[in-house]
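During the second year of the project, the team shifted from modelling isolated chains to modelling whole assemblies. The rationale, set out in the original proposal, was that interfaces cannot be judged from single-chain predictions alone. As a representative example for this report, we include one of the complexes processed in the last quarter. Its constituent sequences, exactly as entered into the pipeline, are reproduced here:
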Amino acid sequence: MTDATTTPGAAAPKSSLLQLDDRVRRRNAAERRFKAYGIAAVSIGLVFLALLLFAIIRNGVPAYTQTFLTVPIELQADKLDKNGNRDLEEIQKVSTFGYKPLIIDGMEAALAGQGIASPFEKAKDLEKMVSASAPAQIRDFVLANPDRIGETVEFRLLASSRVDGYLKGRVAREDLARDKNLDAEHLDVADAMRDAGILERTFNWAFIFGADASESRPEQAGIGVSMIGSFFMMLVVLGLALPIGVAASIYLEEFAPKNRWTDLIEVNISNLAAVPSIVFGILGLAVFIQFAHLPQSAPLVGGLVLTLMTLPTIIISTRASLKAVPPSIRDAALGVGASKMQSVFHHVLPLAMPGILTGTIIGLAQALGETAPLLLIGMVGYIASNYPDGIASGFLDPNSAMPAQIYEWAKRADPAYYERAWGGIIILLLFLMTMNIIAIILRRRFERRW
Amino acid sequence: MSAFWILVVVLALAAIGYGLGRSRAMASAGGDARHLHSLPGYYGYNAALSVLVPALGLLVVWLIVQPLIVQGVVSGSIPEGTYADAGALNLLMSDVRRVAEGLDMAVAQGVLNADQVASLRVEDTNLRELLGQVGVALGSDVEGYVLNAAQEYRSMTATGNLLRTALVLILAVAGLAFAFTRTNKDFRARNVVEKVVLALLIFAASIAILTTIGIVLSLVFNTIEFFKLYPWTDFFFGLTWAPSFGGGSELGIIPLFWGTFYISIIALAVAVPIGLFAAVYLSEYASPTVRAFAKPLLEVLAGIPTIVYGLFALLTVGPALVAVFGPDSLGWMGGSRAVMTAGIVMGIMLIPFVSSLSDDIINSVPQAMRDGSLGLGATKSETIKQVVLPAALPGIVGAVLLAASRAIGETMIVVLGAGAAARLSMNPFEAMTTVTAKVVSQLTGDADFASPEALVAFALGMTLFVITLGLNIFALWIVRKYREQYE
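Output from the structure prediction step:
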């Protein structure tokens, strides 16, 4: 019967395992192609990551340096205190506008002292090189030290954002043709001043610790106050989401009977985890602000909204780590006479704690970077210019949050603010990185394999 | 007494209760813990919980309910005809609250004393100036009925606060006394404490339900308000989106849907192939070292906040695309904000989402199936294409659907990257806008919450919620239904 399969006369095909025929070659080529697609996909993903980080660092690092002018300014007594009696009330009457001439005089004197010729017809043009915050800075100094009126004091003034941008390479000479804030002559003066050491770029602590500034003075803006706002929000989230999340998980994992009600809760939690964050913002607006009349823009409200948003994340990870504790622990506890509640609180919960903390930190990191819900409860559009006075005002006074502040800067359509936004992202990412590293260390160090 | 101090007093009472309960139990057992029914600490906890739970429960309920009642009564006392509609009444009530708050501050700062405040009349004093002095700026002069309402508001709030303090403290002390009298060596303290703790655990678990109910109610009520002012047919089938706060807006959702859909499609076109191939490579081909290095790095992309992606779209990807497709070269693209910009960046964000979900699913395909296919002489890629992927398909579809729901609900990338103009166009290089971006733009700003232009955001939120919820449930259903087929 087997004869039928071998047709006599026909030569056996000349195939050998050692010699690839066309089909095998094609299949092997397909194999290599497929693998190459995979490698390409992974590399594209990694390239995107690298590009993203590169963009952040390249655009953000300049925000950490700032250009300052060191100018000796004569606090002319005849302008600041006409009657000469050093009465604080009268000195206060001189507005910041009255300090502008002093700055111009001081700068002209400094330029003349270094032998730099001023190319401007109007002396007022020099003023454009200095930040609009400079008069207020000098005024504050005078009001704090009225006895120094008449002396010549050396001030470190912020340079205007255009001059700063020129030193950082952001502002090119060609761009200035359409710019009414600065002319090419200013840049010549800036070059000369830099050579003379009047103008210098130094590390910008004010960006890390300072407050936001109005739209026209990006050189003054900092992220410090909104960092405090984020901090208070995270306190609320930690204080509410951790206990509620852990309690809910303990109930669902250890005590809940299997019935419709607990099924409903479980489906609910997994769905809440996937609800778009902006919907939580709508909830916060409708419930906390419209209905309960809590103050707008307050970190307390932001924290409440983010609590609701992170709760599902924390519940899911807490349940996973409770599940990872072997039943023998519970059995042993019950066997020596503990109640169910005691077995959970005395034995299961402590063993699950590292996992719970890891999940909580990851949830907090997610909450820290979230922006969309904060836009709806009004943490944007507000200039966070003051540090909160105390703990109560930290929770209740209007403030911004780091991601909301970054969004606010990105909206302001001034390249100097874009630089600040990138710089703010560096800080935000550093916080997130630290939190994630702590979570990883906790997991590695304390997690037990059973 | 302010709520904070009430809280402090109640906590102190609870601490005292713990000590009292414990020591009384020990005393009744003659100092020998073995005669007690429960461990001594439980008698303490019982007393502390009897103080805390009712008192704090009442405090919380009171804090929520009192403003509502006061608000209702005071707004009822404002003469009708002084306001046009509910929105105007709301504005009026916020004036009333500010005046009341200002008067309280004036008393606190000693500008006025309590009698002077009670006898204030609009005709005699310039209230606006007076309140300006204590740091409460008013938008307009105070009308007589506003002052009356504010006086009523103040007196009701003061009475309410007094009652609140009294009742909460009485309840706390009563709880303490009750627990104290109940405590003796035969009292089953542990059982009582455990019951209360269990109730608290159940309450915590119900918060998830409460959140959902809160979301649904806040969306539904405002959506109904919106549909009272604006016909629903025009909303769901209108082809123009042109809100104007002066009235006469056209609020059709279709252009927004189209923008959302278009951007999501581009995002998925980027994320699904890259994510899927990355998942296949990492689970089937990569050596353990490559996997240990590349997988966490890819997942970093998922941990980056969306505001960062938004900025990346606006300032890096957008300008880069303009350099290639912009007016200076191909001329297809007008500005850096476009569907393409937002879509690509959103795609990058979704890569780890698709890849890690698919990775898990591919790994859960039994090894025996691969071995069978390889044993028949299939190459690795043939095995993957013809055996592993079909087996993992339901899970992968689920992952893609979840990614789609993320893309539809994503806000910051589209707010910064996609533009603000609602358009119905096929050109992916044009600026379009999405449902989420419009929710943000309609609710930020000084819009009056009673106007259709602001309320439309709730209707948009409602549609968004329903769509994403539907997608999620569908995805989970697919995953659940087909998951265990091969085990």
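Chain A has a mean pLDDT of 83. The radius of gyration of chain A is 33 Å.
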